[in-house]
Structures are given as structure tokens and as C-alpha cells.
Design goal:
Strand order of the largest sheet: 1-2-3-4-5-6-7-8
CATH class of the largest domain: Alpha Beta
Number of strands: 10
Number of domains: 2
Structural class: alpha/beta
Order of helices and strands: HHEHEHEHEHEHEHEHEHHEHEHHH
Number of helices: 15
CATH topology of the largest domain: TIM Barrel
Strand content: 5-15%
Helix content: 40-55%
């Protein structure tokens, strides 16, 4: 490259960073953040409305080993999801606890967005009607593998079973979603006939269920595993008005496959439903996280219809009410999602938060945490001091230098392996002269 090329690049770099610094601060400003987001992240617009159909209170509470939330806790979870802007809530109906939770949700005016989950059985639909639901999801296998649940029933009888269930729900005024269990391992000719049959019977939405997480997001992947291919085939060869994706995380691809569905429907449908659970709770490895799908849509596709500020609060509440051990490094809402210890990371954060934070923690109701530990340096100790003192500390302050050396000795000479807690940090700070801490 020529000297003038480098000069031109240097000018662009300086101008870019000047704009970023003007919009950046350790103090959160939603207005400045939105401007910063436009500058840093290039949005790919979507020609489809993404409707979150949260199934935490159905799929999520089925997760092996977690505690079933108390009806009052289920109601609070539902209310927080409503506050975030979730437009459909799928719930269980079978137990007294389920039904008490539903009653509480209705008392909170959530009735219009509640949806019952059912088998293709008249008694399940009757229960949903008794509980005054307006929407129902009817689940039924579509793969030959899953048909083994009913080894003695021929294909024609299975078609009759689901058709009668959908028609019965339609005749009683319910909006109907049909869930195609194990869609990503289903024979397409059979599944196509199944979708057209339930559409004729009155279903409004067909749910592609990636039941064991084997779906593939690559647009070149063929049926039945290729999810974009399945979206295109459903649009072209079936009568169903809308589709939904319910992706499991057995191979770690639930969010990827959910987003692949969203992108594949853009321009084909005016809306797409995404079936997700908060924190990814669900059978086996769980499913696509509600919070991850929302943030991907917001950051990469400019969808700003959700209220992001309750995300951390809801995560903490779900974890406590179900006794779920939320991983520290859980994206967006985990305790360590905005925690920084490494010296180079803390230096970057103190200089420009965007260096190591995709978005400000306050956006999702979280907060930044500076951890003082074995990997910390002067910048980390200084930033932690400023956080607790609520004032700036001169980086050349002799007390700061003494404090940094005192902490280093804890790890070097004492062979300490765990971080310094806040109470101990305060005590050590007072020892070197920061008496107001």
C-alpha cells in the first residue's frame, strides 16, 4: 500500500473513533446508545413480523430436575413476559397448580395471550374450553420414528385422529396451532399431506418442531433437516396461513435454527411465530432462549418492539422460583455476562465500554461488575475503587499504587486463587488510606 492509502485509512479511523467516543460513557444513556448502535452495527431489515410465543410455562417447566413454580410465581413470570412484549404464552392445563396459575393470570388480564397445549384428544380440548382459552396448540407426531408411540395405528387412523381434534377445536371457536412433532426427521410427502389436512380442518399455524435438535440452518441443506428449505416448501406446497419454529438445543443450534427460520420467512409471510423459553429451559438440552432471540432480532435486524429492561430481573426470578442453577456465563442475563477481571479487558472497558461489551448492561436491566482477582491490574483496581467511592481516582495517586501492590501480594505471595470480595476490598482500601470507602 502507498503512504497516501495509510493516511486516508488513519483519517477514517480517527473520525470513526471520535464519533464513538462522543456517544460512549460508563454512564448509560438510552438515546446515545441507540445512536451508537446505528454507527457500529449494520442492520439487515426483515420483511416479516416476529411474534414471540414463549413456552417457558409449558416446555420450560417440563425440564427434568427443576422445581415446578408456585402458581403465584408462574403468574409473575407471565406478567413479566407480558411486560417485555411477548404476544403469546403457552401454558399447561392439567394439574390443579396449572389451573390455579391460569386463574391468577386471567385476573391479571392475560387471558387474550394465553394458549393451552394439548394432545390431539377431545378431553384435552374440552379442558381448554372449560378454562376459557381462546387459543390452543395441538401436538401430534409427523415423523415415522415418533409414530412408534402408536405402533398399532395405521396412517389413515392418525390422520383421522388429528383432523377430528382440529375440527372440534375450530367448531368451538378456538384459534389453532398444530405442532408437527419431529418435523426435521419427517418424510416430506407425508408431512405435506398432514399440513394440508390440518389447514383444511381449521388450523391457522403449523409449528415446525425440531424435536431432537437435528435441524440445519444452511439454506442449501435439503429436506427434512434443512429448515430454510422446509419453510420454502411449506409456503409453496401447503395451504397453512402461518408457520412457527420450535427448536431444541441438543446440538447447540436452537437459536441459530430459530433465527434461520425468521430470515427464511422474510418476504414470504407477513408474520412468523417463534416458540422459545426463557433461559432455554426445556426437555434435555432445552430450546432457543427467548432473551437471545429478542436480542438477535433487536441488534441485527432493528426490531425494537420489545421492552428489554426486565430481561435480567425475569432471568433471576425464574432461576430462583424453579431452583434452576443458571450458568454464570449465560449470555445477556448471567452473573458474568458483564463481569470483567482481566487487566486488558478492564482497561478496554474503562477506555471504551464497547471494546468488550456488545451492548450496555443497563439495556437489559443488568449491571457491569469489576472483579478484582489474580488477572487484575491497576485499571481494574482503580475502576472498582471509583465504583465504590463514586468519584474519580487519580491514576498517579500513591495510595492507589500501594493498594495495587497490596492486592498483587495476596495472589503472588499468598498463592490465592479466588477473587477478592467487596467487603475485603473495602477493608484493604481503608488500610492504604481510602478511609471514605
Amino acid at each position: 500500500m502507498k503512504a497516501e492509502d495509510f493516511k486516508s485509512m488513519e483519517k477514517v479511523r480517527r473520525e470513526y473513533l471520535k464519533k464513538i467516543r462522543q456517544l460512549s460513557s460508563l454512564e448509560f444513556s438510552r438515546e446515545k446508545w441507540e445512536e451508537l448502535k446505528k454507527l457500529v452495527y449494520k442492520v439487515v431489515p426483515l420483511d416479516v413480523d416476529v411474534v414471540i410465543d414463549d413456552t417457558t410455562l409449558r416446555e420450560g417447566v417440563q425440564m427434568a430436575g427443576i422445581v415446578s413454580p408456585h402458581p403465584s410465581d408462574s403468574c409473575r413470570i407471565a406478567c413479566l413476559l407480558r411486560d417485555i412484549g411477548v404476544e403469546r404464552l403457552e401454558v399447561l392445563t392439567y394439574t390443579k397448580s396449572d389451573q390455579e396459575a391460569i386463574k391468577r393470570m386471567k385476573d391479571e388480564n392475560l387471558g387474550e395471550i394465553l394458549a393451552a397445549w394439548s394432545r390431539a384428544a377431545k378431553e384435552d380440548i374440552d379442558l381448554a374450553l372449560k378454562l376459557d382459552f381462546k387459543q390452543i396448540g395441538i401436538s401430534h407426531p409427523v415423523s415415522y420414528i415418533h409414530f412408534e408411540k402408536w405402533t398399532d395405528k395405521p396412517v389413515e387412523q392418525l390422520f383421522t385422529r388429528v383432523t377430528e381434534a382440529v375440527e372440534y377445536a375450530r367448531d368451538h371457536g378456538l384459534t389453532i396451532f398444530v405442532h408437527g412433532e419431529d418435523s426435521t426427521r419427517a418424510d416430506w410427502e407425508f408431512e405435506k399431506a398432514f399440513i394440508n389436512t390440518v389447514a383444511d380442518a381449521g388450523a391457522s399455524v403449523y409449528r415446525i418442531c425440531d424435536t431432537v435438535g437435528c435441524g440445519v440452518s444452511d439454506p442449501k441443506a435439503p429436506l427434512p433437516h434443512g429448515i430454510p428449505a422446509k419453510v420454502a416448501h411449506i409456503k409453496k406446497e401447503t395451504k397453512i396461513p402461518y408457520i412457527e419454529i420450535h427448536a431444541h438445543d441438543d446440538l447447540g443450534n436452537a437459536v441459530e435454527n430459530t433465527m434461520a427460520t425468521v430470515r427464511a420467512t422474510s418476504g414470504l409471510y407477513d408474520k412468523v411465530y417463534v416458540s422459545t423459553t426463557f433461559l432455554g429451559l426445556g426437555d434435555r438440552a432445552g430450546g432457543a432462549e427467548t432473551e437471545k432471540v429478542i436480542l438477535n432480532c433487536y441488534l441485527h435486524h432493528g426490531i425494537a418492539k420489545w421492552n428489554l429492561s426486565p430481561l435480567r430481573e425475569l432471568a433471576m426470578f425464574i432461576a430462583s422460583s424453579t431452583n434452576f442453577n443458571m450458568p454464570l456465563n449465560k449470555a445477556i442475563v448471567g452473573d458474568s455476562a458483564f463481569a470483567h477481571e482481566s487487566g486488558i479487558h478492564v482497561h478496554g472497558i474503562s477506555t471504551l465500554p464497547l471494546t468488550y461489551e456488545t451492548f450496555p448492561p443497563e439495556l437489559v436491566g443488568h449491571e457491569r461488575t469489576i472483579v478484582v482477582g489474580m488477572r487484575s491490574g491497576k485499571h481494574g483496581v482503580k475502576l472498582k475503587l471509583e465504583e465504590l467511592l463514586k468519584r474519580e481516582v487519580d491514576e498517579n495517586d500513591s495510595k492507589l499504587m500501594e493498594f495495587v501492590e497490596l492486592i498483587k501480594k495476596k495472589f503472588v505471595e499468598g498463592r490465592r486463587r479466588y477473587p477478592i470480595g467487596e467487603d475485603e476490598f473495602r477493608r484493604l482500601a481503608r488500610k492504604v488510606g481510602f478511609y471514605e470507602i
